[in-house]
Amino acid sequence: MSDDLHYSVLRITLRRSFVILAGLLALPVMLLRQDRARFYSYLHRIWAKTSDKPVWLTQAELSGQSFY
Hints:
Layout: H1 9-30, H2 36-48, H3 55-65
């Protein structure tokens, strides 16, 4: 059994709203920068996080199921 705390729907919605807002506000600046992939990768991590478990661990568990 997992001890991970799953976030509420309200918290997930607020996080994703923040990601959309930050992405749109940063778009004009990020179009001119060379490291924009790192910034948008960070925003994707925030978007994908639905519990206090690390995103990489959640994705690794999900990808492992496709091979079994």
